[in-house]
Structures are given as C-alpha cells and as structure tokens.
Specification:
heterodimer, A: alpha/beta, eight-stranded mixed β-sheet, B: mainly alpha, elongated
C-alpha cells in the first residue's frame, strides 16, 4: 500500500511485512536499516525506488523493503538494474549484492557497470565468505583463512573492490561498516544523490561462518583523508588501504550514461505498437 | 471607477514564533521520543529474529522490552500533548552509531539466553543515562535541563530494574552457544 503523499516518510515506511531470515547478529540487518533510513532521509517514495539483487544472503534485501524489487539471477543484478534504469530513468535504482555474487559470479558485470557509469547505487555487503552456501571462500576471503573446503586457506590474494571500481570508472566510491548504521545511512544518502555509478562497499560481518569478524568494530576507523575527485590521488590512497578505512574515497566528475537513442518513457502500449509496426514492415 | 479601499494592516498573528526555549524543549522531547521509538522497533526486530530461530523464551523477553519502551514513548506523547506527531530528527542525526537506547544488531546469537538479552538491555539503558547526563551538563535552556535530569534519573531507575531482573534469571552455562548440529558444518 502506498503511503499518502503528504506524510513525511520514516524508515519503517520502507520496510515490507516480510521478516528477515538472516542469522541473528548478521550485519545485513543493519544494512537494511541503513537503506531504509537513507530512503527516508531523501524522502523518496517507495513506488519511485527499485531494489535489484542477485543471489545470496544480502540479495534477500528487496523482499524486505516496500519498494519495487527484483531478486534476479546470480551475479546479474547489475545487468538487470542497468536495463531498468535505461528504461525508467525516473526511478531511483539501488542494487544489492554480496562479495560472492558481486565480485565472482558478477565480476564482469561489475567492471562494465563502473565503466558505463549508469546512475545506479551499487551496495555490496562484503563478509569475505559465501554464507548462504555454508561458508566457502569468496573473492575477498583472506588467503590463509582455513575452511572445510580449503583447510590451508586458498592461498589466493584477495580481490580489492575499491581498486577495481576506481580503475573501471565508478563515479562515487565509498566504504561503510554495518556496525555503524547511521554512518552507513549517511553514506548511502550521499551515494544515492550522487550522479552516475555509485559504489558503496559495506563491511557486513557473517557471525555464523566468520565469528571472528565481530572484532571488525574495533578495526574500522574513519578514513583519515578527504574525498578526492582525482583518480590518481585516490589510487595512491588505496595503496596503503588495509580494508578498514570507512568513508568516501572518490567523488568523480564523469557524466552519467543515459540512453540517447530514444529518450523518454514509452508506455507499454506505444512500445507494443512500435514492435507491431516493425513486424508489419 | 471607485477608489480602492485602503488596505488594512494585516492582523498580527497570534501564534507567532515560539520562544526559543519552547522550541528547544520541543526539539529535546521529540528527540527523546524518537529514541524510544527506535528502541521499541529494535527490540521488536530482535523478538522476530528469535521467533524465526525458535528461541521462544528470549523472543518473549524482547517483546516485553519492546512493550516497556513503547510505554515510555507513549508517556512522552501524553506529556507533550502534541496535536500530531512531531517532526522527528533525521534517523542518523545522532552522534553515536544509532540512537543511544538502540541495541546493536551484532550482539545477537540464535542460542542466546534471557540473561544475554538483559545484558543488551542493560547496556542500552546505561547509554541512555549517559546521553541525558551529557545534556544536563551542557548549556541548554532551564526547561530542557530539568527534563534531561528527570529522564536521566528515570533511566537510572531502569538500570536498577534490569539489574534486579538479571538476578532472577539463570546465568548461562559456559557452553551456552554449543550446538550439536551447528549451521557452520559444510555438508
């Protein structure tokens, strides 16, 4: 049910009636809270927002919001979201993903979404593990982390999402921590407002398969430097980044991609007519 | 053409701007109300989490805590007699990670005992005490100061009540989180 237009919306207005089934203690609860706080702060209408996701614990988020939602296929959330934004540029489109969905299965889409710079907000809940499938190493897992599948660790260096996002052309890059829901909400608010492809990595502990991540709250710290619009400076800062600096790293100046061939919001009937015309000719 | 009647000077608005002290007091109470609302909601979320994991005893306890906080919120509403709900501060306008009385999500565990839930509640009440104490030590209008002192005392009373409650529930065994069939097993 849509809220009346005149009433100021509060975070609760963006939550659905579905109860989250994440493990108690999971960072994703906080992320959901932050997303709803950000949407309330922006006073967006639920019917003007779409939340698109792939597969994994984090990708359950669309169902828990009151916005339009699309729970897509593994790693393809950005492809679906890009299509949606091109077709409906009036919508605010958030994309929710995890480190497995976003950086492994969807790694290629991540690169090209950064490069295209479509006006999307990409929220990746990073817990350095595949949680839904019971604790396998993901692209951001530390090389020496022992698991049942890799008792000696994977021995592979971690994927660095911020480096990749910067190199590939994302227009806004930030890192947040789920243990700071208000700080995360403020970052998300800025990311949603910022034109172009905004990438927000959120450290979101998996207390079931990585209980040691409860200590992240002691490890995170506000980034000691101001955001920059210079990719070279941002890159130099990332050289010494240990993954626990929280805040905005980069605010770029690229013009967002917009569909130029046929602007406008064609109604389904007119699209249908266009297709029929093509068929007839 | 008739001469236009001289324009009358508009009557002075009776309900002109409120006194700054009154504004500050209303803002303070709106913030206190928002704080209670967040606590109500968070405890309710915790209850839902525990219900999902069939931990009924702790779910019931969180429901009770949520209800208690809702009574506090209701009392603020009654005291202020606002004609409609006040404009609440932005959800992330607190200096802390969340509102002072809001429990963090990461203290939860699916096997937690009532004692753990009360530990969480105790920390929240202590944070609320510190919050109101910090206001009562700041340079604020007298009315806000008095309200902050009163609320700090109320929160101290809640601390005492929860400590007494904790005396009445069994302390968890050392292996309270042992699960013979833990979800962490890779099958």
């Amino acid at each position: 049910m849509n809220a009346p237009d005149t009433v100021a919306l509060v975070p609760k207005d963006f939550k659905s009636d579905y109860k989250p089934v994440w493990c108690p203690g999971c960072g994703d609860y906080s992320v959901l809270s932050s997303i709803t706080k950000a949407l309330a702060a922006l006073q967006l209408r639920p019917e003007n927002v779409a939340v698109v996701s792939g597969i994994g614990c984090s990708s359950r988020i669309p169902a828990y919001t009151n916005c339009y939602g699309f729970h897509g296929v593994h790693g393809r959330s950005l492809a679906a979201a890009t299509g949606l934004k091109a077709a409906r540029p009036d919508l605010t489109v958030l994309v929710a993903s995890g480190d497995g969905d976003g950086y492994s299965i969807g790694g290629n889409h991540f690169l090209h979404a950064c490069r295209r710079n479509v006006d999307l907000t990409y929220i990746v809940m990073d817990n350095h593990v595949y949680g839904m499938t019971k604790g396998q190493p993901s692209p951001t897992t530390e090389p020496a982390w022992p698991s049942k599948l890799s008792p000696e660790g994977t021995g592979l260096r971690e994927f660095h999402p911020l480096v990749i996002a910067l190199a590939a052309g994302a227009n806004f890059i930030a890192r947040a921590f789920s243990g700071d829901p208000n700080g995360t909400a403020a970052l998300l608010t800025e990311a949603i407002r910022y034109p172009g492809f905004s990438f927000v990595e959120i450290l979101s502990p998996c207390v079931t398969f990585r209980p040691e991540q409860r200590a992240w709250k002691e490890a995170v710290r506000p980034t000691p430097v101001e955001p920059t619009d210079d990719p070279a400076r941002a890159a130099r800062r990332l050289i010494t980044d240990d993954g626990f600096n929280i805040g905005v790293l980069y605010r770029g100046t690229r013009t967002p991609f917009g569909a130029t061939a046929r602007r406008g919001n064609a109604a389904p009937e007119s699209l249908d007519a266009a297709f029929r015309f093509q068929e007839a000719s | 053409m008739t001469k236009a009647a001289p324009r009358r000077k508009p009557a002075r608005k009776v309900a002109a701007r409120k006194a700054p002290e009154q504004d500050a007091y209303a803002d303070f109470m709106a913030r206190a109300y928002a704080m209670e609302l967040e606590a109500v909601e968070r405890y309710a979320q915790f209850a839902e989490q525990m219900e999902t994991f069939n931990n009924r005893e702790v779910a019931d306890l969180f429901r009770k805590l949520s209800h208690v906080e809702s009574l506090h919120a209701k009392r603020i509403l009654e005291e202020m007699n606002w004609p409609s709900l006040p404009a609440l501060p932005p959800a992330f306008a607190w200096e802390s990670d969340e509102a002072p009385e809001t429990a963090p999500f990461d203290d939860m565990h699916y096997l937690m005992k009532p004692f753990h839930a009360l530990e969480i509640a105790l920390e929240c009440e202590k944070r609320a005490v510190r919050y109101f104490e910090s206001i009562s030590k700041a340079r604020v209008p007298e009315r806000v100061l008095a309200a902050a002192r009163e609320m700090a005392e109320e929160e101290r009373e809640h601390v005492r009540l929860i400590e007494a409650w904790m005396e009445r529930v069994p302390k968890p065994a050392a292996d309270w989180d042992r699960d013979p069939d833990p979800p962490a097993i890779t099958e």
